[in-house]
Amino acid sequence: MVSNRRRRSVLIRVGLGLLGVLWLFLASQGGPAIGSLSSVQSNDASTFLPADAESTRAADAVRGLEATGTLPAFLLVERPSGVTPADLAAAQELSAGLPTLAAGDEPLQTYLAGEASPPVPSQDGKAVLVAVSLDAAAVTAPGADGETPLATVVDALRSAALAQFPGAQTWVTGPAGLSADLSSAFGAIDGVLLFVALGAVLVILVLVYRSPVLPFAVLLTSVFALSLAGLVVYHLAASDVLALNGQSQGILSILVVGAATDYGLLLVSRYREELRLTASARTALWRAWRAALEPIAASGATVVIGLLCLLLSSLNSNRSLGPVAAIGIVAALLSALTFLPVLLLGGRWLFWPRIPRATAAAPAGTTAGTPDEIPATTVATPARPARRGIWDRVAGVVERHARRTWIVCAVVLAAFAAFFPTFQADGVSQSDTFLSSVESVEGSQVLAEHFPAGSGEPAEVVVAAADAGAATRVAGSVAGIDSVAAGPANATTAVVNAVLSDGPDSPAATETVQRLRTALAGADVPALVGGTTATQLDTLDAARHDRALIIPVVGAAVFVVLVLLLRSILAAAVLMACTVLSYAATVGIAALVFDHVLGFPGADPVVPLYAFVFLVALGVDYSIFLMTRVREESVHHGTRVGTLRGLRATGGVITSAGVVLATTFAALAVVPLLFLAQIAFLVAFGVLLDTLLVRSFLVPALAHDLGDRVWWPSRLRPSGSGAAPRAARHRTAG
Cα-atom radius of gyration of the chain, to the nearest Å? Predict the structure, then answer.
């Protein structure tokens, strides 16, 4: 018998050692993969749309008429005192000499899709414009270092323009300039964002544990989880299995760090609790792992299912975020449940200087050193009384004023939710995408002052060659179109370029394109309308469709998971109602803050969708952690007492987990983009609202008020009351 135990103990140690080595190998491969994720990104808005979108079909048709796909760059020169003949000559010289201009290690000729246009002076005589067509495939293809040459090419154009026109103001704008500035903004994701998130999490962990060692064990778990997620996502994106953009990469980093840290906090909390119940650290770890497995797995499954609902999206950008983020959550689960336990085998000293000691003799049969020696039916020592503290006082409020507490909380949330309809999510112009000043945006604004705002980015009307004349007449009669000109054509197909009076990324321009499509259909001219503005219009329409479809599906999927986990329809309905009310209140508060404090111009239609997916999937986690512990305690003490005991036991760790997740999402604000700043506020504030109000007061007060009825239609049969012991199976964790 002794030899068998020793053999099992040796096998377990060898297995854990191999597991640790496997994680070290994955981390060594995943670290470089994370640094290379930007090389497999695609931030072109046209790639977000499905193949059957009208603008996508139009773009395909236009590409069929051109020798190569182009990405326009507009070199703009402004001299308020008036453009001089010397300026025009310098512009002509620059235009002719572009092919020999150095762009990194290559001549610019490598990246050109034809000759630059002759200089075009403005009617007011204060500006001159040179259009440069770049080869889209050449400037967006990853080089040997994994980076695309687009930013290098645009920087070369900007430097040349600055040197060629002393005393004048110059800009490089247009789609190429905007794409280069977007890439620069997303560059923060590779380093600054991750550094800020990990630094903030480390500070919080040090404050929570007050230990010099344990915070690094939990943080290392998050880093290894991110390495695994980055490794998988990189290879899938490089193989074109899924699409990755800058937004998805930023959310992936934040989500993995936050989720892995949360799961680690829960496991460590239960481990510390078990260390006070048994002298054997390995026995305590095994019990804690078994107790934490169900709620952590259920939490992860809820988030994964919610994220995978994004696969229903018609936008490729949304559809790709689902599996990318789901891979991150699975990596966080695996790291927390397999790598962190290896680190925790270090024992009690990890908690130094606040080392948890066994406060009571462990029951017979529970002091063995390996999991194999723990009888499945062993009954654990009763939980030690909770210390008098903030969560004891919170539980006291819930106990004495349960109904009043949940009514007040619900009224407060409903009051803020009343502002939900005022949240503006009808899209914003690309110039409003940036929160900091960038050259491409400034240049587009100056361009609109001196030239028709849609110059260089016309709406492209693709028609049969025989219908080109009719399409030209119809387009010329549409309000908001400045001029119409013939584009590329062949024997069967023609393109009519309609220059818009408004900026191509403006709401007014999208309305003009919609009128153009309506006018062509009314004139019975079969046509496809494409171009930058049409792409934006189709993207907005698809985003609104996704929002209407996916939000109910996510809610239904999460509700089913809750029913299966809690084995109760009523408890699941209570949690879902509370979470949805919290989401509505968060969006209502965001509407007030965005409009009246931060002065944001609006939001993309996808922002409420992302907020719902993350807040419902992540926000309900904290209620899951609470209610699974409440159910465990209720089996032995009844629902009302079990609710109070569960609240006391989970209060500190769940609050810490919520603060960690809110902090990591708040780190998205370091990227100077409107979309990410809005997601950062919505998720960070919403998670704190769920953690501090919904999970702390609203849910426990409702559960206490409902009593045993909360488990309907199942019936909870308490095995005792008062100080009855907890079952050693520890099906749930706090």
Answer: 30
DSSP 420: G
Domain residue limits at 115: 69-181
Q: What is the DSSP string of 678-730?
A: HHHHHHHHHHHHIIIIIIIIIHHHHHHHHGGGGGTTS----S--TTPPPBTT-
Annotate 450-480 with DSSP letters as a single string: HS-TTTTS-EEEEEEGGGHHHHHHHHHTSTT
pLDDT by residue (tens digit) across 164-198?
A: 888 889 999 988 888 888 877 776 566 677 888 88
Could you report the per-residue pLDDT of 42-99, keeping only the tens digit for each? 666 556 777 788 888 888 888 777 656 778 889 999 998 888 899 899 999 988 888 8
- Residues 94 and 75: their CA atoms lie apart, in Å, by 10
Q: Are residues 231 and 328 in the same domain?
A: yes
Q: Residues 423, 417: contact at Cβ < 8 Å?
A: no
Count of the separate structural domains present in the chain: 4
CA gap 252, 233 in Å, rounded: 10
Q: CA 492, CA 485: separation in Å to the nearest integer?
A: 18
What is the rounded distance in angstroms from the CA atom of residue 38 to the CA atom of residue 246?
7
Rounded Cα–Cα distance for residues 606 and 682 (Å): 13
Q: How many residues does the chain have?
A: 734
Which pair of tokens denotes residue 85?
Answer: 């003949």
Rounded Cα–Cα distance for residues 605 and 627 (Å): 33
For residues 205 and 191, what is the distance between their CA atoms, to the nearest angstrom?
A: 21
Torsion of CA 324, 329, 334, 339, to 10 degrees: 100
Asked whether residue 149 falls in the same domain as residue 120, the answer is yes
Quick one: 377 and 406 in the same domain?
no
Residues 272 and 174 in one domain: no
- The DSSP call for residue 117 is P
